[in-house]
């Protein structure tokens, strides 16, 4: 049988079947359409302005490595005039994060971007290894997720950037849509498909890979021979998310468009106005100054629980009440440094040491 | 139950029995120690459970029975179910039309039929022989909530030879309810001109429109016989339609849509104001997740309840413009509650014939997933329904989908084109392709030649779900079979709806509803049908090709109103026909 020609350029020999469209296309056309779709996502959502300082959340994994490569490529091709940085968070997971950070350091050389690494130990005084030692593997993802979000914002603030981009892909978003519906998390459901999220005092955060399939990201990294770290986190993944992920993979196998169809569904509905009115308003954490829906932010609540030996205080209401019944937090309690957002983006950059 | 490992001590191997509280047999309602069933953290005795089920069902149905005070607030473009103030007594319930109950023979519809008959109709039938005891407000002396009641059943055996026809079994089961008239339907009725003529009362059949390309272009009916329909064998047409669909998921979705629309159109012909479906909480959660997984986020609210209105040209089906409320009274009752109630009340379940589907479908996977999840996380199904109940569609409504007749979000085609590039047409430069090639768009099969009519496309008239159903392929298939053979015949309601966009024969151009025709044609640079019919429906252009004598000159120009008019060559016969319209 004669080799098929590319469905797009009609000239070169088709090398791969695109998971997103099912088309058989050549390698160069795949690179082009993948990058152009990300470019379309960026321009349609008007993510950046010329001269923006943008931090790429880099873990060393496939998503963030491909994101760094594509951002650099598009920045040069379409002259976005962005100043790009790599921002990594070291959760302190021996045998996992220390290895992946080595990859990020190589990426820093390969892409010629400044790199900032901020560790949980530096910020919270706890590593994930120490947290897991105290609480076990159950619920450890809650600590890691809450701490990482705030750490990224604080790291970006130190870099004086205007914007953080993360490697969340279409699979991640579809999975989150399903999970939020199944567990009734209406607040997160309302915002999980937004391409840009921003609190009052936090830095704009966006997902340029919102419409990119995970399989295509892997394919891109493979054909471009990118240097990435592919090991899963050694601590057990969130069990409920695992259910949603397995289900999504089954749906994708039945019909590959299912992922983008779920993302489209998530974009096509919103929380009803009368329901929105009942949701908590955003305020500032009294202890650390970070955005919060209560007087104490989630990270401070979790940290207080860890410090006072009642780690589940940030997980369940019952444990929280038990903690409150024991009296106010001692004065010498270790807390997160107060968050002071950079008023003028860029002004803090000169004061921060970054590895170049 | 043990784990089966002989090396483990039996005491250790026993699964711990789940405790259900201190008072395991204390009924939560009557507080007597006669509890017999455990439903989501509560124990009920048999009597209280029976009342509890009927109450939940009524709570979902009663607020939707009376017409809304202001019918204008309840339109198909914003079909949110706006319940009226719930009447306190059955005496205050009065529907504006008849009742149609969709019956599949399954558990949900059997339970629903029993409850509706017992609560809303039994007292009436008993009254007929019950004399004049009681006051006029006594339940025995109430007037009927619905004047007439029908049970509709859609026979699925047309899908496949292996499926047994159960119409007679269903008829027998329904015969236990004398207040309900049985209306059997067949899935192939969706393609049966005789059924369409029967329910619309119209002798004119919709135009014969077929999908002839993977891009969903439609073939236009020949002008000599615009209303002829070759679909003389509805069963064969149905099977061709179903086998041409690109995925098993598409087949599952299409069966759901065909069944729903058959019931709705039949309900309209029976002057019904309500269509009741036996979907329970578990089924509703499955449908909601399934709907979201196939891209139906915009219509997630319609899954729980909708107000359906027939197309504007509703053939005069009188009552309230044919508006029908689709209500699922069992939507707060789980599968277990329905099963226990049916068992205790002695409700017979015929059983649904399952349609054998080759390969995995999103619908089937979702059903398995949710039912499995319900065992381990029992509150999941209610969480899904509750969460989806808090959602509203986002973005502008682009009208009604011609295939599923639900609201369609506008701009979905542009969205699809933006997020997945399927051709280089329109992209300014492609770096790895030579400039000369990329400067001129690559040829595509759908580019119309100057002397041919631009194709009428179905795509702009479809919602996201239906467009994806017809176009999204599985990972194994390489080519679409949708345009194979003589093309894919559309269901009759879709042909009827698309008929408004089909250019009328030239002599009849003024009646074609030109403004819509012009607005929805998708040929570049063509306003109207490209055959000399102006977009404003005014009939033949003053300078239409063939009329001004230089019909062999095929070129377009822009008139004073900014409309682009295209000239084309016309044959001698067509020319004579058109000129004839102007001759005395």
TrEMBL record, chain A:
GO terms for molecular function: ATP binding; nucleotidyltransferase activity; tRNA binding. GO terms for biological process: protein urmylation; tRNA wobble position uridine thiolation. It is found in: Cytoplasm. Pfam families: ATP_bind_3, zn-ribbon_14. Gene3D superfamilies: HUPs. Its main location: cytoplasm. Residues 283-312 form the Cytoplasmic tRNA 2-thiolation protein 1 C-terminal domain. ATP binds at residues 57-59, 63, 89, 167, 172. InterPro entries: CTU1-like_ATP-bd, CTU1_C, Ncs6/Tuc1/Ctu1, Rossmann-like_a/b/a_fold, TilS/TtcA_N, tRNA_thiolation_TtcA_Ctu1. Residues 54-232 form the tRNA(Ile)-lysidine/2-thiocytidine synthase N-terminal domain. Its EC number is 2.7.7.-. Pathway: tRNA modification; 5-methoxycarbonylmethyl-2-thiouridine-tRNA biosynthesis. It is an enzyme of class 2 (transferase). GO terms for cellular component: cytosolic tRNA wobble base thiouridylase complex; mitochondrion. Keywords: ATP-binding, Cytoplasm, Nucleotide-binding, RNA-binding, Transferase, tRNA processing, tRNA-binding. The keyword DNA-binding does not apply. Plays a central role in 2-thiolation of mcm(5)S(2)U at tRNA wobble positions of tRNA(Lys), tRNA(Glu) and tRNA(Gln). Directly binds tRNAs and probably acts by catalyzing adenylation of tRNAs, an intermediate required for 2-thiolation. It is unclear whether it acts as a sulfurtransferase that transfers sulfur from thiocarboxylated URM1 onto the uridine of tRNAs at wobble position. Prior mcm(5) tRNA modification by the elongator complex is required for 2-thiolation. May also be involved in protein urmylation. Belongs to the TtcA family. CTU1/NCS6/ATPBD3 subfamily. This is Cytoplasmic tRNA 2-thiolation protein 1. It comes from Pterulicium gracile.
Automatic annotation (TrEMBL), chain B:
It comes from the Eukaryota. InterPro entries: CTU2, Rossmann-like_a/b/a_fold. One of its GO terms (molecular function) is sulfurtransferase activity. One of its GO terms (biological process) is protein urmylation. The keyword Cytoplasm applies. Belongs to the CTU2/NCS2 family. HAMAP family: CTU2 (MF_03054). This is Cytoplasmic tRNA 2-thiolation protein 2. The lineage of its organism: Eukaryota, Fungi, Dikarya, Basidiomycota, Agaricomycotina. The gene is NCS2.
């Amino acid at each position: 049988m004669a080799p098929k020609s590319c469905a797009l350029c009609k000239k070169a020999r088709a090398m791969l079947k695109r998971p997103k469209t099912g088309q058989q296309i050549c390698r160069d056309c795949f690179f082009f359409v993948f990058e152009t779709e990300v470019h379309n996502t960026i321009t349609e959502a008007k993510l950046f302005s010329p001269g923006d300082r943008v931090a790429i959340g880099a873990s060393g994994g496939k998503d963030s490595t491909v994101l760094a490569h594509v951002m650099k490529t598009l920045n040069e091709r379409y002259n976005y005039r962005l100043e790009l940085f790599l921002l990594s968070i070291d959760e302190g997971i021996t045998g996992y994060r220390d290895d992946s950070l080595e990859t990020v350091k190589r990426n820093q050389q390969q892409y010629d971007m400044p790199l900032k690494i901020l560790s949980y130990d530096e910020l919270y005084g706890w590593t994930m290894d120490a947290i897991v030692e105290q609480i076990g593997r159950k619920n450890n993802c809650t600590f890691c997720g809450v701490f990482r979000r705030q750490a990224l914002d604080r790291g970006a603030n130190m870099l004086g950037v205007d914007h953080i981009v993360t490697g969340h892909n279409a699979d991640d978003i579809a999975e989150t849509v399903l999970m939020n519906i199944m567990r009734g998390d209406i607040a997160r459901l309302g915002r999980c498909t937004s391409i840009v999220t921003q609190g009052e005092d936090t830095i704009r955060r966006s997902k340029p890979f919102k419409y990119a399939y995970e399989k295509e990201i892997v394919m891109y990294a493979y054909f471009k021979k990118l240097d990435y770290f592919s090991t899963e986190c050694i601590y057990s993944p969130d069990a409920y998310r695992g259910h949603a992920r397995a289900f999504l993979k089954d749906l994708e196998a039945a019909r590959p468009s299912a992922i983008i169809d779920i993302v489209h569904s998530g974009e096509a509905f919103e929380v009803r106005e009368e329901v929105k009115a009942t949701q908590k308003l955003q305020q500032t954490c009294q202890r650390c100054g970070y955005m919060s829906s209560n007087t104490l932010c989630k990270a401070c609540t979790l940290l207080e629980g860890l410090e006072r030996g009642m780690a589940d205080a940030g997980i369940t209401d019952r444990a929280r009440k038990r903690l409150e019944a024991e009296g106010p937090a001692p004065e010498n309690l270790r807390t997160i440094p107060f968050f002071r957002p950079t008023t003028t983006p860029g002004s803090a950059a000169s004061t921060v040491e970054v590895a170049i | 139950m043990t784990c089966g490992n002989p090396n483990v001590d039996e005491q250790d191997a026993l699964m711990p029995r789940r405790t259900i509280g201190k008072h395991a047999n204390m009924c939560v309602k009557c507080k007597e120690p006669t509890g017999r069933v455990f439903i989501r953290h509560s124990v009920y005795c048999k009597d209280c459970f029976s009342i509890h089920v009927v109450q939940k069902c009524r709570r979902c149905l009663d607020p939707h029975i009376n017409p809304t005070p202001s019918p204008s607030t309840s339109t198909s473009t914003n079909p949110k179910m706006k319940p009226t103030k719930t009447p306190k007594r059955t005496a205050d319930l009065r529907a504006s039309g008849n009742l149609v109950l969709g019956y599949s023979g399954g558990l949900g519809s059997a339970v629903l039929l029993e409850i509706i008959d017992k609560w809303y109709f039994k007292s009436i039938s008993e009254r007929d022989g019950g004399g004049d005891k009681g006051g006029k407000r006594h339940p025995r002396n109430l007037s009927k909530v619905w004047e007439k009641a029908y049970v509709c059943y859609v026979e699925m055996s047309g899908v496949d030879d292996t499926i047994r026809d159960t119409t007679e079994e269903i008829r027998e089961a329904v015969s236990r309810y004398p207040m309900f008239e049985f209306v059997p339907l067949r899935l192939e009725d969706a393609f049966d001109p005789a059924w369409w003529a029967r329910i619309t009362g119209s002798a004119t059949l919709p135009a014969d429109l077929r999908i002839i390309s993977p891009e969903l272009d439609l073939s236009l009916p020949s002008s000599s016989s615009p209303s002829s329909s070759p679909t003389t064998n509805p069963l064969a047409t149905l099977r061709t339609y179903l086998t041409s669909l690109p995925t098993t998921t598409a087949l599952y979705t299409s069966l759901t849509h065909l069944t729903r629309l058959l019931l709705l159109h039949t309900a309209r012909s029976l002057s019904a104001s309500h269509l009741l479906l036996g979907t329970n909480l578990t089924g509703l959660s499955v449908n909601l997740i399934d709907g979201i997984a196939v891209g139906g986020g915009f219509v997630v609210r319609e899954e729980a309840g909708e107000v359906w209105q027939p197309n504007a040209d509703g053939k005069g089906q009188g009552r309230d413009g044919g508006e029908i409320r689709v209500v699922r009274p069992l939507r707060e009752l789980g599968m277990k509650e329905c099963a226990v109630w049916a068992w205790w009340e002695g409700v017979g379940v015929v059983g649904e014939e399952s349609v054998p589907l080759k390969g995995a479908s999103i619908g089937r996977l979702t059903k398995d997933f949710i039912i499995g999840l319900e065992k381990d996380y029992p509150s999941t199904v209610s969480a899904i329904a509750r969460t989806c109940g808090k959602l509203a569609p986002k973005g502008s409504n682009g009208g009604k989908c011609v295939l599923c007749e639900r609201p369609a979000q506008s701009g979905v085609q542009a969205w699809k084109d933006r997020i997945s590039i399927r051709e280089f047409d329109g992209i300014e430069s492609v770096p790895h392709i030579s400039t000369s090639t990329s400067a001129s768009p690559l040829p595509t099969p759908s580019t119309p030649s100057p002397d041919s009519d631009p194709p009428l496309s179905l795509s702009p008239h479809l919602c996201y779900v239906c467009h994806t159903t017809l176009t999204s392929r599985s990972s194994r298939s390489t080519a679409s079979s949708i345009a194979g053979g003589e093309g894919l015949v559309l269901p009759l309601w879709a042909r009827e709806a698309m008929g408004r966009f089909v250019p009328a024969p030239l002599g009849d151009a003024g009646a074609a509803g030109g403004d819509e025709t012009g607005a929805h044609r998708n040929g570049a640079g063509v306003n109207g049908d490209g055959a000399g019919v102006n977009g404003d429906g005014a009939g033949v252009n003053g300078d239409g090709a063939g009329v001004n004598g230089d019909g062999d000159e095929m070129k377009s120009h822009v008139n004073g109103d900014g409309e682009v008019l295209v000239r084309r060559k016309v044959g001698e016969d067509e020319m004579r026909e058109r000129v004839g319209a102007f001759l005395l």
